[in-house]
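BUG: 3D viewer hangs when loading the predicted structure for this chain

Environment: internal workstation, default settings.
Expected: structure renders.
Actual: progress bar stalls at 90%.

Input used:
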Amino acid sequence: MTIPGVVEEFGSLSELKHIEVINIKEIKGVKQDTDRHLIDAAKYLQLPIISEDKKILMQAKHIGLSFFNTLMIMNFLIYKKIINQADYQTALEKLQDEAYYDKTIFEYGKSVFETIMGKVLI
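Structure tokens produced before the viewer hung:
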């Protein structure tokens, strides 16, 4: 689920599969930028935020919303057996090429992955 502003920024809904566009009226009747509208919609609907935008994730944290980045969603998908290890590895390589994550984020993601896979060395 996302708001229309995110779709507009992305460029087209045709590339987004399985995405439901929600449209809640502007909160407090004030025209808001897309980031603020996204945060307010998530707060109103009590849904987590999934984003790569640190500013959005920090706003979500500040108001107590759950939030996740792509790496944590990948870990969730492998945990739920929606993707397999080969798909995970392919996605991880793409993410490492594209994402602006600090090294510690990838290390944490790896520890989560290893825990999921039952391969944590103690």
